[in-house]
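Review box. Two proteins, two foldings.
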Amino acid sequence: MKPSPTKKRCHAKKIFEALESALATATKKKYEQEIDVRVEIDRKSGDFDTFRRWLIVEEVTMPTKEITLEAARFEDESLNVGDYVEDQIESVTFDRITTQTAKQVIVQKVREAERAMVVDQFRDQEGEIVTGVVKKVNRDNISLEIKSEGMAGNAEAVILREDMLPRENFRPGDRIRGVLYAVRPEARGAQLFVTRSKPEMLIELFRIEVPEIGEEVIEIKAAARDPGSRAKIAVKTNDKRIDPVGACVGMRGARVQAVSTELGGERIDIVLWDDNPAQFVINAMAPADVASIVVDEDKHTMDIAVEAGNLAQAIGRNGQNVRLASQLSGWELNVMTVDDLQAKHQAEAHAAIEIFTKYLDIDEEFADRSGRRRFLHARGTGLCANERTAGN
């Protein structure tokens, strides 16, 4: 019996193991009782021997497959619990049913071996950009063929609809790039998942276009995207002589433009990282100018004040600018005008004063001073953007 040809070449060891498993399964079907069988194929001649075996246990629960240690040691005193006792039995002859059973097991084992090879090969590439050729376009996903060095054919990957950019259309034969973000060993279904919409795609493209990132002179700290529309990426330098923002922009904007083109014209804001969360948020709100900012560390929120004329720009279309700044920083951001922020703080301070006078029965003037101090302490550290900029 010869194994059916497959599109992908498995290791000879895997093929022999599949054959042995298939022959063992076919042999078991010849017996009415449930037995354990092992088949051993001679790798050179192709001949095979069949063995019935019993597992050595302390207490037998399945007499057709188990044997006690005491009984096993009658034949071999070196045996221990967990070892096997084997007797050679007659090997199966290949009638129609035996051949069909063996073929089914072989196909299954070869498929399992192929999937295991895919996982082994691509696991180290997880998080990296891969290039594939579109094989099939479905309503919910795209199938890609990715070159596989260790196999005769190509590996198949999937880009789900949510991992594509809006308005992206591909046809069979198109070459596309994406980040391999998941390698799954499940027995069924897709194994390799590629994305073009996640922040990792933006990060990896900059890693390709900006050599200083690969050299670890510049570090990408965070990224946020509204795929196909706009993105923000935060960078810092480990060498004070190098401007990280300028390096990522490139000569005449060449580097950032290359990334933007790959992402369908996505506008990209390159933001300077700062260890001070408030200053980082001010940077992330660009191109809007922040007048002042108040941090509430307990609630992990920041109130951002801008001049009335800058409010629309600070919020962005459909809240895009502040939403991306929030994702980039990890803080909840509330944008308002300078007057609205002042009014909000006055209202909160007044509420604190009322609590002092109502529940603590203290003098109103003292409550006013104590309440305002308590309010300011609870609000955390406020940073005036204009003062911070002037002080640099």
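Next protein.
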Amino acid sequence: MNIPVINLKAQFKKVKKDVFKGLQEILTEQRLILGEYCSTLEDTIAKYSGVPHAISCANGTDALILSLMALDIKSGDEVITTPYTFFSTASSIVLIGARPVFVDVEEQNLNIDASLLEDAITPKTKAIVVVHLFGKLCNMNEVLKIARKHNIPVVEDMAQSLGARQDGEMSGSFGDIAATSFYPTKNLGGIGEGGMVLTKRDDLGDKVKKLRVHGMGNTPYHHEMIGFNSRLDEIKACALVAKFPHLDFWNRKRIENARYYNKKFKGLPIVVPNVGNDGSHIVHQYVIRTDKRDDLQGFLKERGIQTGIYYPVPLHLQDCFSFLGYKKGSCPVAEKASLTSLALPVYPELKAAEKAYIANTVRDFFIN
């Protein structure tokens, strides 16, 4: 048996008829940028997420940069974030001239540890960027309590959590502004790059709409601010519109697969994700932790099971961020997670026999 860690081909089979129909229409009409499909996608995601503004853009990194620009983050400002996430969460901060301040993560969910936030705040702190890692929502009640106390805006990096909810609110609706990604491997993934900014604030929504088209307002070639080119094209929007009706089902299947693994792994010396029953975890990745991570990965590979490591080096220890002055031991929980985490296949199209094979192979490694 050969099981990939991600299987995009299996998913595309279910939507290809609708995608091809839309592509034919787009290519015939030649409305290629910010057209009907982009508008439909924006309206759909806004309604789904419970926010008035959803602004599509070229990719998830741009969505983060646009969010920070909309908040007027500038050179010399500090932005608190997590060291245990994809690179662009921190690189976007540096690219606009600000300085990332890394706060370690919680043991259980590997999200930013809200209890450490207050100690990291200085007069230069101008934003907090939280990441709902692997599809699990952060402790937003505590994050927002601290942020509001100090009048600091909150950016949600929800690239991995579209569809997660907590206390009736959706991912992307908690903070001042949010950024998501439609990279092909995401729970709602496109046929190329894509991103979106979500916000409840009219001022930020209006600003992002201008920033993504070179700072241009409603009058063509009249620029109200310095922006850049970050528009989503119709072809990518078309695929996302076709896929969106399946998102909740796909998320449920991911949760179902995760619960299956959790049940099968009881008693093993590994840490499994806390999926729960409240909808706050939509399992973008199913990540276990074990001190025998590398040996387990090799064992699974030999038996045809692909896995992933997210993330092998925490951001505060990346060479390109050495100028920030962080050393080994600065964020011990994130550092340990980088050495022990392993992602197993969890995509919705996994067959029952494949899930059983994966679970039994993991058990064989630890028991036999």
